[in-house]
Amino acid sequence: MKRKMPVLASVVALTMALTACGSNSGTKETTTPAGSAAPAATASTAKDTITALLPPVSPNYQKNFEQISKDFTALYPNLTLKIEPASWEDVKQKLDTQVNAGSPPDIAFGGSDGIPKYIEQGLLMDITSTATPEMINDYDKAPLEYMKNGKGLYGFPAYMEVHALGGNKEFLEKAGIDWKKVQTNGWTYTEFRDAIKKGVVTENGKTRYGFVFAVKGVAAVDYLGIMAKNAGMPHAFNKDLKYAYTSKNYLGLLKDLRALIDDGSMPKELSSVDAGKRWNMFLTGQTMITGKGLATFENSAKTNNAKIKAADGSAVKDSIPVDYIVLPAPTFQGAKPSAATVVDGYMTFRGKKEPTAEHKANVVKAAYFLASGKVAATTNNDLFAAHITQSAKKEAANMKIDRNPDNVAAVDNMLKNATPARSDIPSELSAKAIKLETEVIVPKFQGLIAGEVTPEAMYEAVKTAAIAAFGADGIVKD
After folding, report:
1. 28: part of which helix (H) or strand (E)?
2. Between these two residues, 12 and 144, which has the higher pLDDT value?
3. 9-161+342-416 and 164-327 share one CATH topology?
4. Beta pairing class for 107-111 and 48-54
5. Contact 370, 346 (CB under 8 A)
6. Secondary structure E strands in 243-340
7. pLDDT tens digit string along 252-282?
8. CA dist 61 to 57, 134, 296, Å?
9. Which positions make up the signal peptide (predicted)?
10. Residue 412, Cβ density class (10 Å: 0-12 exposed, 13-18 middle, ≥19 buried)
11. Which residues of 118-133 are buried (b: 16+ CB within 10 A; e: fewer)?
12. CA separation for the pair 303, 316 (Å, rounded)
């Protein structure tokens, strides 16, 4: 997820030993364009190895790698699943390095929003004709759509979760905020702005803020992207494939987000807050509401609460017991709610050489094994994430999970307004939008947060870059 757990230091030695790539197994000279679908494969008993580059998807995920590989081989005796562990900090760099070298792993875990980029590089493998009907029918329809681009299917989703906000129940109630009503009905920007003002408290010379969001580094675009969806811009392109962030709503959003800092509801030093510091501030009572928050944060808070109660020295220093409450992001300028969903999954890759039909079928078996059944049930329960396959739901039925029912209902409400997938956006447009985001939006927004760039200046910079990328007729003009 774009929800990053701590690195497991013990994987380093194994990582060094397992740098392998799928293009070494069962390949032949390419006869079809890179990324195109091959004919469906028949079952084979030949020995084969499938490689996978996997980060710590959940707190206990990497601890299960040995068992996952054993269970896969027990199901398919002729196949070996060779896993290369990686941290969240370096998995993208490792994957990009291997892709650029033309020798990616067979399977890599990552965000579905990265699919257009890898399609453009020609090494993502379309499994449309190889995935069996049983595999496809196991899935809820909505999350599977996120792994598609055009008519191609490029892997299997692991989960569909909401990028929400998280609140401290005690602080919310002290500020007079009816959090159950917010969970059910949502809130407007004005209501949210007033609420977080009430959450600002100074005690013993220390300030507790109403709202803190991680914005240091690439996290800045998470904040902006989540809020933009609720400001009438659910995607970077509208239905007519015009670039959306040149809309007047975008300028209004930038002004609104800057106002939260100017109000004193967020720290003036917000630009220095990364994901780790954001969570530390929440657990130590320095903020009433935090973002972005995934369902797993409730689990993390409960784990820390237990450590505090047991006087365990590994609890976060100076932390307090926290009852974590899931909250939706506010809506802006009269827009309808459009919850930011995160669909991460197991993308399927190919090397420079076209894989044999047998190897392609084996890769699909491995990707589906990781994304469904017991593996998915165990991982998603660890994350407090919703199950998106029937096979995982069945396996999870007997797994105990301690989760606040109000939070479950809140997530379900947000999923009803989930931003839909857009497989109609051409990969070349998506790639240009990602480039514009990286080179213009992220640095300008970080400047805006730091007080070095005005909303108007950032808007004009984005508009100028958008015209250069998509043409004067390729942008929204309102």
Report:
1. strand 27-28
2. 144
3. yes
4. parallel
5. yes
6. 287-293, 324-327
7. 999 999 999 999 999 999 999 998 899 999 9
8. 6, 25, 13
9. 1-22
10. exposed
11. bbbbebbbbbeebbee
12. 10
Which of the listed CATH numbers 3.40.190.10, 1.10.357.10, 3.90.550.10, 2.40.50.100 matches domain 9-161+342-416?
3.40.190.10
Taking the CA atoms of 306, 312, 314 and 317 in sequence, report the sign of the dihedral they define. Answer: positive
Of 113, 122, 77, nearest to 92 by C-alpha is 113
Structure tokens at 288: 């009433």
Cβ atoms of residues 95 and 104 within 8 Å: yes
pLDDT at position 43: 61
Rounded Cα distance, 62 and 290, in Å: 27
Spell out the SS3 assignment of 42-82: CCCCCCEEEEEEECCCCCCCHHHHHHHHHHHHHHCCCEEEE
- Collapsed DSSP state (helix, strand, coil) of residue 324: strand
Q: What would the pLDDT profile of 329-376 be if each residue is shown by its tens digit?
A: 999 999 999 999 889 999 999 988 889 999 999 999 999 999 999 999
Torsion angle of the four alpha carbons 187, 270, 289, 176, in this order, in degrees rounded to the nearest 10: -70
Q: Each residue of 163-189: pLDDT tens digit? A: 999 999 999 999 999 999 999 999 999
CB 290 within 8 A of CB 165: yes
Give me the residue label for tokens 């939006």.
441
Contact 199, 260 (CB under 8 A): no
Give Rg (Cα) of the chain.
Answer: 23
Per residue in 207-228, pLDDT (tens digit) is 999 999 999 877 888 999 999 9
User: Measured between alpha carbons, how far is 113 from 343 in angstroms, rounded to an integer?
Assistant: 8
311 Cβ contact partners less than 8 Å away, ≥ 6 residues apart: none
Q: What are the residue ranges spanned by the domains of the chain?
A: 9-161+342-416, 164-327
For the chain, counts of helices (H) and of strands (E): 20, 14
Distances (CA, A) of 407 to 101, 114, 214, 316, 326: 44, 29, 22, 23, 5
Q: In the chain, pLDDT over 90 holds for what percent of residues?
A: 75
Mean pLDDT for 312-316 is 95
Q: Which tokens hold the place of 195?
A: 């609420």
End-to-end CA gap in the chain: 34
Please determine, looking at this structure, whether the domain spanning 164-327 carries the CATH number 3.40.190.10.
yes
CA distance 400 to 378: 10
